[in-house]
Amino acid sequence: MKKEPKNDLRYIKTEKLIQKTFRDMILEMDYTQITIRELTERAKINRKTFYLHYTSLDSLLAVCQTKLYDEFLQSISDIHLPTDLEKLIRHIFTLWNIPDEANRKILYSRGNFPIGKSPGDYARKAIFRLGCSDGYLSKYTTKQIELIDAYLNGIFTFIHYQWETNNREMSFEDVVSLTTQLISHGFLSLDLQV
User: Fold this and answer.
1) Cβ neighbours of residue 114 under 8 Å, at least 6 residues apart?
2) pLDDT recorded at residue 66
3) Which pLDDT score is estimated for 18?
4) What are phi and psi of 143, to 5 degrees?
5) For residue 138, what pLDDT band results from cuts at 50, 70 and 90?
6) Helix (H, G, I), strand (E, B) or coil at 165
7) Could you give the 3-state DSSP secondary structure of residue 188?
8) What percent of the chain stands above pLDDT 90?
9) SS3 for 7?
10) Contact residues for 19 (Cβ-Cβ < 8 A; gap 6+)
11) Which are the contacts of 18, defined by CB distance < 8 A and separation ≥ 6?
């Protein structure tokens, strides 16, 4: 089968159909339950047509996640660390609380990506490069910067996870404020009256 050029109208229309069918399916089931067979049947396309667009379901997931992360990265392009740390935290938590259920499930789905090569990993590295702009972290080695990145990513991820686990009992503003305080000033900055 001849590969259609990516700017061909039929190619674009089929691409949109595959992504729409994928979005519909992810609302009904977990990502791990979706099969190419069922997706192509629902989209009423041939499996070969699917493979003209994607090498696997993971490549489809990666394209969908990358679109979401690209939009997010555009929204934070003017942020500079450390001065805009609270603004960055607010944007990250807003992304993770995306109201569109299909986008949320796409964002949280885990494909079979090599370690450090998922769309989320690329986005995290792009976000962290903000911290390296203006030479802010220039005195640190590459390995030290990787540890700082892991530390920040862990804090963002686990605080948000715990907030979700607690059914968001704290307000969004309070969780952003506390996260900013902990990252900026550490545990010792808390007023721990015994």
Assistant:
1) none
2) 94
3) 98
4) -65, -40
5) confident
6) helix
7) helix
8) 49
9) coil
10) 60, 63, 64
11) 39, 43, 45, 50, 53, 54, 60
